[in-house]
Amino acid sequence: MAEIVRESMEYDVVIVGAGPAGLSAAIRLKQLDANVSVVVLEKGSEVGAHILSGAVLDPSGLDALIPDWRTRGAPIKTEVVEDNFYVLGPAGQVRIPNWPMPPLMNNHGNYIVSMANVCRWMAGQAEELGVEIFPGMAASQLVYEGDRVKGVVAGEFGRDPETGEPGPSYEPGMELHGKYVFLSEGVRGSLSKEVIAKYDLSKGHCPQKFGLGMKEIWEIDPAKHRLGTVTHTMGWPLGSNAGGGSFIYHLENNQVYVGFVVHLNYENPYLYPYMEFQRFKHHPMVAELLKGGKRVAYGARAISEGGWQSIPKMVAPGVALLGCSAGLVNVPRIKGNHNAMLSGKAAAEAAFAALQAGRMGDELTDYETEVRSGAIGRDLKRVRNVKPLWSKYGLVASLMGGGIDMWTNTVGFSLFGTIKHGKSDAAATGLAKNFKPIDYPKPDGKLSFDRLTNVAFSFTNHDEAQPAHLKLKDASVPISVNLPKYAEPAQRYCPAGVYEVVSEEGKDPRFVINFQNCVHCKTCDIKDPSQNINWTTPQGGGGPNYPNM
Ligand SMILES: Cc1cc2nc3c(=O)[nH]c(=O)nc-3n(C[C@H](O)[C@H](O)[C@H](O)COP(=O)(O)OP(=O)(O)OC[C@H]3O[C@@H](n4cnc5c(N)ncnc54)[C@H](O)[C@@H]3O)c2cc1C
């Protein structure tokens, strides 16, 4: 193949991903010096299109970044007024009172927001300051110079789907070079994954842990709507099959976010996270709330859960990992947006100081120091044992032990030290022969929906003619290894129905990848027990088009 020649553009800082982390970094750089050149690339068709965290926002990140956000028209209006926590059984629930909860679990002063809309607003703030934002531009490759990351390739499309060679409408895209490159791709970023592997950034840290979060937006009967109410549940339907739980947030316009998270370290390969979510909505408490309502949107996204123990080294020559590219979620609080913003701000300040000193392409160690020893580190360190306690000893132990640990950490010590996470989520998958298939009730089309119908409500689109962005390292593995050993769990763990095993009489089973349905949650890249699926950025763009998730 002839060498591909690309034009290039030079910037001080190139930022990949217009989520809260990337946008915060861009805004902070321009606040510090209007002359610093900053570009932000976003794979969604517009900023917010791929943002799923319909969210209780701890405003501490935004307070630090844009202290006057309240008077700048930020779409952050609904303050939390009520916090509920229930443990569910199949037919009832027990409410855990708020008083034994550690103070950090309190949502007082937090807001129920559409993070997609918050990101749209932040993008406007960034553009006013002079940041260049290119939506619909996936950064598909890293550009190296010697040992350092020098930039990214964006906007390449038109490769032949069969051969991978440039096709008739091929566009090579551009190289965007930066003195520093920030990867703020969110959880399991594809370029971040490459950087973590190349520079061995996870060495000495626990493996990253993940959950799969699925969410629907419902418009409900106004008589049942309680603006500002936040409800979390655990227990049924997952029981001891997996860790996880639900969230129900009442936002404006009689809407509620109904979400469900399944920890991806589950063992039973027959577990079907999407169907667990659908089943959850039939719990009497939830069904009563949703009855007569209408589901208006659906989406899914992985969430990082490893916390403090799993933060990799965050810098390598010329490059830094921001937000959930480094896994900065506080798991018991289910909050990462504030830390994403704080990390963006810290990375910007470190890069600005480096540029002032005439440096480029080196490691921004001050950024890493600030994350680990500043507000983000403090936030994550005091909850570090909740997830490993849950994984090792189950829900009750995690509620009791994790609760006590969060209390003692509030005053500065832990009875447990730092508990390590076990294996990776992929390696946690058990052999099918050791488990029984789970019988899930059929969706009723009123409260629960089949997967493909729901995917239509994510407004996902990929051009049929583009090459599949879900690549198998070895095309034979799904049928020759995963099917006999694990009953090919991709059929079930994917919340968008991308993967199918098609069995036709008289023929060998076939593994089919319907990449057009992919909602970019990254679960396959995380959970495939053979680690054979590589999620790459789609050439020619595409993905979900979330309205106000
Ligand atoms: C179901 C669910 C519920 C959650 N609830 C809450 C909550 O209530 N409160 C809270 O604070 N946090 C919550 N979180 C966590 C929160 O979503 C994350 O911590 C936060 O989104 C991290 O921000 P980020 O900027 O690092 O990444 P993201 O928000 O994921 O943004 C990354 C952006 O980069 C883009 N991108 C990725 N790769 C590329 C590429 N190669 N080229 C170009 N663009 C790219 C993506 O399209 C996306 O727009 C939740 C997460 C989930 C999944």
From TrEMBL:
**Which keywords annotate this record?**
4Fe-4S, Electron transport, FAD, Flavoprotein, Iron, Iron-sulfur, Metal-binding, Oxidoreductase, Transport, Ubiquinone
Q: What's one Pfam family here?
A: ETFQO_UQ-bd
**Per the record, what are the reactions this protein catalyses?**
a ubiquinone + reduced [electron-transfer flavoprotein] = a ubiquinol + oxidized [electron-transfer flavoprotein] + H(+)
Query: What PROSITE patterns has UniProt attached to this entry?
Result: 4FE4S_FER_2
Per the record's keyword annotation, is Iron-sulfur included, yes or no? yes
The highest taxon in the source lineage is Bacteria
Q: How is the cofactor bound?
A: Binds 1 [4Fe-4S] cluster.
Residue ranges constituting the 4Fe-4S ferredoxin-type domain according to the UniProt record = 509-538
- Give an example GO molecular function: 4 iron, 4 sulfur cluster binding
Q: Tell me what this protein is called.
A: Electron transfer flavoprotein-ubiquinone oxidoreductase
